[in-house]
From TrEMBL:
Species per Swiss-Prot/TrEMBL record: Salinimonas profundi
Domain DUF7088: 37-137
Transmembrane segments: 7-23, 579-603
Keyword Transmembrane helix set for record: yes
UniProt xrefs under InterPro entries: ABC_transp_unknown, DUF7088
Coiled coil ranges: 496-531
Positions of the ABC-type uncharacterised transport system domain: 175-470
Keywords, sorted A to Z: Coiled coil, Membrane, Transmembrane, Transmembrane helix
Entry protein name: GldG family protein
Length: 614
């Protein structure tokens, strides 16, 4: 009887399980709970805004080679995530997005269609099968945009890439952006190495969203219907172009200025040229904004780790890694960014006579300092720059949104200009100023990778996001800004960072003294040894030999002390790591076992008490 009851119970559970699966699939398919901290599996408000702005239906073709990827678990899991997110777009669009799933099998019409869209087929697996994993979109005007291949390394930007595609399909024409620069943004042949270089990634990103017009500093005018003017480390501009930019700003135009006291990412600076590579700052100064060309900002707390001349890894106080604490959380341009990397930046201030308003977007920590540009250039070793750091600094402004009233940089129109169109003042200046142009260079924010024969770029900082955010914001489009940078989970170990700062402050001076003492000892020892080796006629006395032996012993002792100091720099962090390992490996399972044991005792006592009462 008990056996029959157990069979019936098991059969009933199986039926109940199948019924629940069917009910969940039919009734609750659209119901989901996103438990991630930043809601990365939920469409952002920006994506919903882009979907709401779609006026004509958009068709999305999702290509994934299902048969060819069998056994590739990681890639298939990511493909399921892409498919799930596309379904979220389809449901939110209420019919304005038509989604098609296509498996482009070899030698099929579907494969030909993928090729016509320009999708990339990667060769994977032992059978050399071609795998398609991309997205193509079309609108009623026959505009076509593709994501050639979904790179799993760019999973953090998945929603942004899809939303950007929908935005481009919905707006039709792109805003016009005038980029004034002589940087090699389009790539080409390097005049020193003779090698062909790719275009700069920030330029490629801007070109996807804007109709970018490159303007040489020697040109004389801006394109008509320009939506945004961007100055990217311009050298001395022609007077006619200065006047055009000035009058554009006076007419409530939108200007973004990357102005640098020293742009060190060009080839000459990288090869050791010690001449300052300054931007043309004359326009900003005429409007009431000051970025001293002879001063560079340092910060010992935010310094990025580099290798020093001695071979050790140290923080470079001129190469700064800005985190959320240094970015304006309430401004739409920087609110969703996690990190920005800059180098040899200047300090932004308003002149005493200025009537402008300045909203800070980026700044240093409270340990910010400035040093002479000449000293910075003549001391490339970060350990030398660390000696310039003092004990009491203050936050320095590195980027700002500047608005308000100002006057033209020109007292009157230049000869040949239309005097009837001249604007001497404006009360609605709209200007973004960034005191660094090195942040535009690929080496400070993006890493180049080869993925199945294709060059892909994986960002490790949000520099490109900042540039595009700024351009979109001034061009009047805010929808994509809410989407960008979602899903970045760079969780800084604040306790570890605090211990590192404390240790460096405590031991830096001691370490430097030991290094100086070691250098002096080795110098004196080398002199004595050279004297000994200058000729066979030289015979050292016992006292001189004892001196050499003493210096050798002293060198060994100083090196040991130096190793001890360097060990102390990590000891507190290692202790914290050991405690974390103990908690995760031993303490947590032990607590769980004890909890289950206590729960078992409680249940036994309750069962025993009920039995005794009966």
């Amino acid at each position: 009887m008990k056996k029959i009851t157990a069979i019936y119970t098991f059969a009933l559970l199986m039926v109940l399980f199948v019924a629940l699966v069917i009910i969940n699939d039919k009734l609750f398919d659209s119901t989901r709970i996103d438990l991630t901290e930043q809601k990365v599996f939920t469409l952002s408000d920006g994506s919903h805004q882009i979907i709401d702005e779609i006026e004509e239906p958009v068709t999305l073709y999702y290509f994934f080679s299902d048969d060819a990827t069998k056994g590739m678990t990681a890639l298939r899991n990511y493909a399921d995530r892409v498919k799930s997110l596309l379904r979220e777009y389809e449901k939110a669009a209420n019919g304005k997005i038509r989604l098609r799933f296509i498996d482009p099998e070899p030698f099929s019409e579907a494969e030909d269609k993928a090729a016509r869209f320009g999708l990339t087929g990667a060769t994977l697996g032992n059978n050399n099968d071609t795998v398609y994993f991309g997205l193509a979109g079309t609108n009623t005007l026959d505009d076509q945009i593709t994501i050639e291949f979904f790179d799993p390394q760019k999973a953090n930007f998945l929603e942004y890439d899809i939303s950007k595609m929908l935005h481009q399909l919905s707006i039709g024409s792109s805003p016009k952006l005038a980029l004034i620069t002589d940087l090699p943004v389009q790539g080409g042949q390097n005049p020193i190495t003779g090698q062909n270089e790719s275009s700069m990634v920030f330029y490629e990103q801007l070109s996807q969203l804007f109709d970018v017009h490159l303007i040489s500093p020697d040109d004389t005018q801006l394109p008509e219907e320009t939506a945004v003017v961007m100055l990217a480390h311009p050298p001395k501009m022609s007077e006619a172009l200065k006047y055009a930019v000035d009058q554009y700003a006076m007419a409530q135009g939108q200007v973004i200025a990357f102005i640098d006291p020293h742009y060190e990412s060009d080839m000459l600076s990288l090869m050791g040229n010690q001449q300052a590579n300054r931007s043309d700052m004359s326009l900003l100064k005429s409007w009431g904004i000051d970025i001293p060309a002879d001063r560079i900002v340092l910060d010992g707390v935010l310094g990025l780790e580099v290798q020093s001349a001695s071979g050790s890894v140290v923080k470079h106080p001129g190469y700064l890694g800005l985190g959320k604490g240094q970015l304006h959380n309430d401004d739409v341009i920087t609110a969703n960014l996690d990190s920005l990397n800059i180098a040899s930046a200047g300090e932004i201030t308003l002149l005493p006579s200025s009537t402008l308003d300045m909203d800070v977007l980026m700044q240093t920590s409270d340990d910010g300092f400035v040093t002479d540009t000449e000293y910075y250039l003549s001391h490339p070793d970060p350990e030398d720059l660390q000696q310039k750091l003092g004990s009491s600094g203050q936050a320095k402004v590195l980027a700002a949104h500047i608005t308000g009233t100002t006057i033209s940089a020109f007292g009157q129109p230049p000869e040949g200009a239309d005097k009837t169109q001249f604007k001497a003042t404006t009360d609605k200046l709209n200007l973004l100023v960034i005191s660094d142009a090195d942040m535009l260079a690929d080496r400070f924010w993006v890493q180049q990778n080869q993925f199945f024969g294709q060059t892909l770029y994986s960002p490790f900082a949000n520099n490109g996001d900042f540039v595009v955010n700024a351009a979109e914001n001034l061009a009047g489009s805010n929808a994509l800004i809410d989407v960008r940078s979602r899903g970045q989970f760079a969780r800084p170990f604040s306790r570890v960072a605090s211990l590192e700062r404390k240790a460096q402050k405590q031991y830096r001076e001691h370490e430097q003294k030991l290094r100086d003492e070691l250098a002096q000892t080795e110098s004196q020892l080398a002199q004595l040894q050279n004297q000994q080796g200058q000729g066979t006629s030289l015979v050292l006395t016992d006292e001189q030999q004892r001196t050499i032996d003493a210096f050798v012993e002293k060198r060994v002792a100083v090196r040991k002390q130096l190793r001890d100091v360097q060990y102390e720099l990590r000891s507190d962090i290692d202790k914290l790591g050991n405690w974390l390992k103990f908690v995760n490996i031993a303490a947590a399972p032990l607590v769980l076992v004890m909890t289950l044991y206590l729960l078992t005792l409680v249940l036994r006592r309750r069962a025993g008490s009920r039995f005794n009462r009966n």
